[in-house]
Amino acid sequence: MTATTRAILWDMDGTLVDSEPAHEAAFDSALHEAGLSVPAGLHDGLLGASGDAVFAALREATGTPLSLAEWTGLKHRHFERHAHAIARLPAAALAERLGARGVPMALVSNSTPEEVRFCMRATGLDTLLDTVVTRADVPRGKPAPDGYLLAAQWLGVAPADCLVVEDSPTGAAAGLAAGMQVLYHPQAPDPTPPEGARYIAPGAVPDPLIETFLNMKAQP
């Protein structure tokens, strides 16, 4: 570990890995197998939401008799089938460089443990982060702060000394609610980024801002 007592907390989907195409394909395939149809744009409108929140929206839209566990299992089976669509994003290389320097880091995801393990293995990032918080570890998923606060606790770093890197307004809201600094780095331009987060436009790199954060003095 370096001399810094500051930590970087990474979102996974849309930040370190691009799994949204696989998630969308799995969602559509699971709908087809279950004989369900949803309004156009339902999945896109739930970017960054946890699986239980997605299922609640699905149940409201379709009245499906499936349980959350049944839907999760069905979707994950199709998610594995679409694994070829999962790819690293540029931030993954930065995370590897910071990890090699011993910078304290954690992964905080709204995905299930199975999805997190699968995505990290599929992209070769499964040995990068020892501290991983999934939706199963906390009472509430993002936009609640629970996951980020738990990651800070596990790392032994004060929330004020944590920098969250997120691609969705939902995740950014979770980091801000946890009292952390937030870099909001979406994959598509956002004319109205979350208030309080530092916006990094698509195509720009977060490296300089992260280095500035790490070089600042931690809270006493």
Structure description:
The structure is a single chain. It is built from eight helices and eight strands; from the N terminus they run E-E-H-H-H-E-H-E-H-E-H-E-H-E-E-H. The longest helix has 15 residues, at 20-34. The strands form two sheets. Strands 5-4-1-6-7-8 form a six-stranded parallel β-sheet, sandwiched between helices. The chain is α/β, with parallel strands linked by helices. The protein has helices spanning 20-34, 51-62, 68-81, 91-100, 113-122, 146-155, 169-177, 207-215, and strands spanning 7-10, 17-18, 87-88, 105-108, 132-133, 162-166, 181-184, 198-199.
Overview features:
alpha/beta; six-stranded parallel β-sheet; two-stranded antiparallel sheet
Question: TL;DR?
Answer:
By secondary structure, this protein is α/β, with parallel strands linked by helices. About 40% of the residues lie in helices and about 10% in strands. Helix 1 packs across helix 3.
Secondary structure topology:
Blueprint: E1 7-10, E2 17-18, H1 20-34, H2 51-62, H3 68-81, E3 87-88, H4 91-100, E4 105-108, H5 113-122, E5 132-133, H6 146-155, E6 162-166, H7 169-177, E7 181-184, E8 198-199, H8 207-215
Parallel strand pairs: 1-4, 1-6, 4-5, 6-7, 7-8
Antiparallel strand pairs: 2-3
Helix pairs in contact: 1-3
